[in-house]
Amino acid sequence: STPQDSGDDIEDVSLFDADDDVSRRSKKSKIRHPVASFFHLFFRVSAIVVYLLCELLTSSFIACMVTIILLLSCDFWAVKNVTGRLMVGLRWWNQVDDDGRSHWVFEARKVSVQGGKTSSEAESRIFWLGLITCPMIWVIFAFSALFSFKVKWLAVVVMGVVLQGANLYGYIRCKVGSRKNLTSLAANYLGKQFLRQ
To answer: Can you tell me the mean pLDDT for 37-55?
Structure first.
C-alpha cells in the first residue's frame, strides 16, 4: 500500500472519531442540569433509605426521625424551588396579598417558537418518575406503620406523605392547569374508560 492510502485511512478514522464525539456530546446534553437531576432524587431516595435502614443502623428513634425530616425538608425545598423550574419549567408558590388573603400561583414556562422544548425528555422523565414514585412509597410506609402498630413511626411517615404529596399536587396543578381543568380532565378520562368498556 502507498503512504497516501494510509494517510487517507487516518483521515477516515479521525472523521469517524469526530462523529462519535458529536454523538457522545448529544447523548450527554440530554440532561442539561445534572446537578439538579441528582439532587431531585438524592434527598427523597435518601429519606426512604434512612427510614428502611434506621433500626439497623442505630437504636435512637430521635436521631432517625430528625434525619428523615431534615432530608424530607431539603427535598421539599429543592424540588419546589429549584428542580421543578430547571428540569420541567414549572413552579408554584403561595402569595399573600395586601388584604391578607392567600393565593396559590401555579406557573408553566411558555415554550418559545424558535427555541422548541426548553427541557429535555430525559430530565422530564427523571422529574416525574421521582415526583410520583416516592410519595406512593411513603403511602405504603404509612399503611405498613398503621397496620403493624408502629405509632411512633407514623408521624414521620405522615410527614413524608404530606411534604412529597404537596409537591406532587402542586406540580400536577402546574402541568394540568386550574382546578377546573383538573376535575374536567379526570371526568373526561373516566368517561373514555366507561365508553371503552
So the answer is: 94
